[in-house]
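Data card: per-record layout.
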Amino acid sequence: MGLQCGIVGLPNVGKSTLFNCLSNAKAQAANFPFCTIEPNLGVITVPDERLNKLAAIDNPKRIIPTTIEIVDIAGLVKGASKGEGLGNKFLANIRETDAIIHVLRCFDNNNIVREGGAPVDPIADKEIIDTELQLKDLETVESRIQKVEKIAKVGNDKKAQKQLELLTQYREALMKGLSARTVEVDAAVKKELLTDLNLLTDKPVLYVCNVDEASVKTGNAYTEKVMKAVEGENADVLIIGAAIEADIAELESYDERQMFLSDLGLEEPGVAKLIKAAYKLLNLKTYFTTGPDETRAWTFKAGMKAPQCAGIIHTDFEKGFIRAEVIKYNDYVTLGSESACRDAGKIGIEGKDYEPEDGDIMHFRFNV
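The structure for this 368-residue chain is written out next.
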């Protein structure tokens, strides 16, 4: 679907290490306060045990998981909103993403330099990036206000007046040092009034606290400060040890990785949690198609109707949509086959207004 999460953070917080664990793409990670200039793109497989269970039932010739795109964006620096440190390029890269994964350093290590030699401070790091994004958004909002004000006053344009009201709310929040996402606006209203505004601080955000091995299960004083700082921001916080994930990525076999995780008291790798969290951050869900030839996961945006979901497979499916035959995942796994579900009356016949649910097993009928 082309939806992307952008990984951002100050230099040397561990974001490129994390990206390398997520993807086969290799970003250059250097131990000094400077980062790569161009963003690195990784297409990441989304772990989903449901896909494996469906494949175990149908024994298909191939299994195809769904994916998301992660972009490692070069490290932002103070003054980026004014073009410092190639700031305009960095901010443009963030604008092109659909959600932000903000990595914060929450570990001590004297061998890893923090810019200016200052002590570790994830809240100060967060504020540097927040401020740069907010300043750029304020510039965007004020520029739009100048245009909309003239239309609202001269032509007594009702839509322009509503736009001006919403823009004013954004400006007030940004001038207080708050992100645009803190302004409570109905998604439909926002889409109708300012669909093209694309504010940087209005994007959904996930804060990732990069910790040392001792803190990966329970967190530490740094992560506690982060959680307190983001209260009221409508954002989630995830604790990950990037160095540990790098070690896990180097292990050859599944059994070795599980043993490593067991020794640390962890149930699954942190990157698996991160991928799932990113999927959720993008407001994505999964439906499945399965049979003897192929068991496959398909990504769709929450709120899509059945014809749109059919169109993800092929545009002809959407154009000629007749109906969707739907089996709930639990029914399929419990009964063990499509034919058993049919015999038990567990196949729903859904029309154009049906909104597929996460985990639905779908078969589309169409005519072109």
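Known properties of this structure: Residues 53 and 333 are 7 Å apart (CA to CA). The two ends are 23 Å apart (CA to CA).

See the next section for split statistics.
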